[in-house]
Amino acid sequence: MLRAIAIALGVGSLANGTRNSHALRTLGRATIVRSKSERKNLQDRISGEEMERIDSHHHFWQYSAENYPWISESMSQLRRDFLGRHLAVETTTSQISSVISVQARQSIEETNWLLAQSVGCDWIRGVVGWLPLAASNVCDEMETLREQPKLCGLRHVVQDELDDGFLARSDFNRGISAMKDYGWTYDILIYGRQLPFAIPFVDRHPDQMFVLDHIAKPTIQPDCFDEFWSIQLKELAKRSNVACKFSGVVTEIRAHGWQLHQIQPYWDTALEAFGTDRLMFGSDWPVCLLKTSYADWVASVSSLTSQLSQAEQENFWSKNAIRAYRLK
Ligand SMILES: [Zn+2]
Question: 235: CA distance to ligand 1 center in Å?
Fold first, then answer.
C-alpha cells in the first residue's frame, strides 16, 4: 500500500524503498538531537514491523496569510503549501499506512476542500471537518454532508474562544447533540487550563464519541510538571466515550529544541489515564515541523510504545483510531 501511494504520487526514490533522510531533515528542520546510528536503529525497528499504522491527526493547506492568520511570521516553516504529495513522502518513509485529515481553518469551504482531497485517495481514511455548530441552521449544513463517506468527525477551535464558558453555551451544545444522528466524532481542541470546562461538556453528551486532541496541550516546562493538567486529564478520561490523541506534544515544550525525556511524563500520564484502548497516534504535521520532523516524531513515539505488547501497540497505532472514528 505504501509503495502504491508513493508510485501514485510520483515519489520515485521512496517508491523504490530509498530513504531520503536529508530531504526530511530539510523539510522538518529537526531540532531533536539524535545521531545517525540512533536514527537508523529506530527506523530499523519500525520497518521490521508489519503493523498497520494510522496518523490520526494532520493538516493540509494551500497557504495564504489571509486564510491562515494563526500562522504568525515566526512560523516561517509553515508558510507554504502542505498537500498530499508532501505528506506521502513523510508517511512512506515512516511506515504510516493511512491518515486522518483535520480542519485548520473554520470554514465550510475548507471542509469541502479536505473531502475533495480524499476522493480516490485510499490512504486518506477520514476527514475531521468544521461546521458552524453554534448556528441555528447547522442541521441543514449537516444534511448536505450526510452522504460524504470520508467525513468522520467535526472540530471547533475552542482553544481560541475568548469565552472560557464556550463549551457550556446552549447553541453550541445543540449542534453537538445533532452529531450523533450522523455517527460523527467530535474532536476537543483545548488547552490544559480549559479541561475543567470539558468535563461537564462531555457529561452532557453520553452518547457522543469524543477525541481529545493533543492530550489537551499541557504546559511543558523543563523543570516543572503540569500537575493541574494531569489531575484534570485523569478526571476527563474516566468518561469512556472520550479517546485521546498523543499528538502535538512537542510544540507545547517551552524551550528551544527538545528531548524524549521531556515528554516521557506526559506520555506516562496520558497512557495511565486513557489506557491502551483509547490512546492513539497523531503527528500534527505540518505544525509539528516547528519543533521536529515527521520521521523523528514517529520514531520517538515508537520508542515510547516499545514497552507495550504487540496487541497494545496495534491498538495505539491503528485500532483505537478505527474505533473512535468508525473508519471503514
Ligand atoms: Zn493540529
Answer: 23
